[in-house]
Amino acid sequence: MNFANSQGANAGVGTVNPFLKKFPVRAACGAVIAIVVYLSAQAYLAFPSPDNIPSSVPTEPVKSQSELGNIPPLPRIDYDHPPAPRLVSHQIKPGDTLGALLGSFGTDERDINRIVTCRGECRQLHKLIPGATLITRLTHDSRLISVGQSLPYGQIQQYRVYPDSVEVTLSPLERRSIPTYKHVVIHDGESPISAALRTGGIKEATVLRATQILEYDIDFWRNVYPNDDFEIYFDQIFVNDEYVQDGDIHVLRFTNRGRLHEAYLHTDGLHYEADGSAIQKQFLKAPLRYKRISSNFSNARKHPILGYTRAHRGVDYAAPRGTPIRSTADGVVSSVVRNDRAAGNYLAVNHSNGYVTRYMHLSGFASGITNGTRVTRGSTIGYVGSTGLSTGPHLHYEVIKNGRHLNPLTVPNPSVESLEGPQRGLFLANVETYLNTLEGLREQNLIVEPVAVAQ
Ligand SMILES: [Zn+2]
To answer: Is the whole model's pTM more than 0.70, yes or no?
Structure first.
């Protein structure tokens, strides 16, 4: 594999997010992905940020091209064989105990014992602070090197473990955001882009956030093709010179079948297209993670069970039974019907601008979904089944506007809110800086050859 990274790369390996480790994305269903994204986002948002820690971007200015010119050439890293030590960062929750956490990271029992039975100053670490981050360094064979927790007053309380003792140090917590650039060319279009990006050395949590930012325009699970080209410019966050996690995604540029999709971070924390128009659209591209489209929208087709020809007013998405189905836009549930002879279990959602979406053949509804329930774009409303007139598990999905059925795959998708006035001016200036920065990075020969994607 090949990839490029602007700097700080060698510090960025070996971090384990326990959630991601437990649930590899390829095997995970949509719900698990949603949970992982949620938890990762929570972990990220909840990173300790005492007032005296400088906040990261978007307020931080982007490095100029000349500054970036000083970056030394980067070592290539083999992500399949991450070098020791291993760094684990964990956001402390109420009820967490040091021994249990160290155990869950796979720490050697001898070291766990030494630290949980230590006396004197070291006992301070036995009081974990919920919300703080526990940062643990382990050797490749799981011996404890150090463990520390960030303290509310901007310091890190750290314990280094030696064969016969535990040494306590208290050091100021210095948090830095290092801009990082990666460029991946998709080689094998059959794989989800997440695999390609992971292969390129980008953390899964960041890949998932990237796909969420662009999912209004691209169905990342299906519509990725050979030679599609992905650039990402994001922050890696370091605490006391140790990589902790990825931060903001500043720029995403994804060329999908020759068409460029762009996203740039604004100071309001949202991403916009290069001209300041909103990326968030009213509708998601697809209501679920599906295997294939088993039947397209058409005005006339032979019904597989009824035998006669009639219009198919929606799209059929084949997917395993139980796959979560998401509302494609914000709205209010307008009907919940059980065991309809044709549609089986189905529900309809009313949206703004005169749109209605309908979801049929469900195995069941998400908890709390009844007539009148308010749903947000992307929230789970039900699960794939094969109820009613259906030959196998699939979702029949319809989009209706003012009483007329539209093809869900080509429905016009209005933008939510675009930037205007002075905010747009500020944004456009930032985009220019971003683009200059990226150009500089590309010129440094950081562009890489196509990535071979494992199936
Ligand atoms: Zn259908």
So the answer is: no
